[in-house]
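Protocol step 4 of 5: obtain the predicted structure for the target chain.
Materials: sequence only (see below). No template structures provided, no constraints applied. The aim of this step is simply to have a reference model before the mutagenesis design in step 5. Sequence pasted as it appears in the construct record:
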Amino acid sequence: MKKLIALVGFLSFFLIGTAAAAESKLSYSHVAVSYIDGDIVDLDADGFGIRGSIGFASSWFASAEYNATEIDDADIDLDELTFDVGYHWGVGSKTDLFATVGYTFFEIDDGNNSENADGYDINFGVRGKPVDQFEYGVSVGYYDGGDAQYAGEARYQFSEPVSVGIRYRSNDLLDLWGVDLRYDF
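Step 4 output (C-alpha cells):
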C-alpha cells in the first residue's frame, strides 16, 4: 500500500506540471486478439483473449477484455472479464500517462464446480511511441484494494492500423505472456 501511495503522489505531482503539455498521437481505439501462455498458481496455463478500447471526449477511453485460459495439468478453466474507464495525459507528442478504474469478474471451473470472484481495479501507467513502428506501455495496478499487478507490452506496427505485440502481466497468482494482433481505428 505504501508503494501505491508513493506512486499516486509522484503521478499527481508530475501531472500538475504537465497539464498543459501537447496531446499525443497515440490511438485509444482498437481491437486485438491474443494467444496467452504462462503460469497460474505455478501450473502451466494457456488460452486466448480478445480486447477492445474506444477513445472518446478527447482524453477519455473505455476498454473491455475477455481472457479464457486453461490450466493444462489440472483441467481447470479460468475466464476473466474486465471493464475499465480511463483518462490519458499527453506529456509530449509521443508519450502519455494514463490512469484507469474498472471492474473484473473471474470464473474458475474444474468441470464439477464453478467459483466466481470479482472486484475493482485501479491502474497507472505510461505509453509511448518513440518511433513510428514501435510502441511500448508499462503499468502498475491494484485489484480489490490490495493485490498488486504489473504489466508491460511492446508493439511493432506493420502498417498504419495493424500491429503485433508482446504482453506480460504478473501478480501474486499468475505470470502470463501474450502475443497479440491489434487493429487501430
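Step 4 remarks: The two ends are 37 Å apart (CA to CA). Confidence is low (pLDDT under 50) at residues 13-21.
Proceed to step 5.
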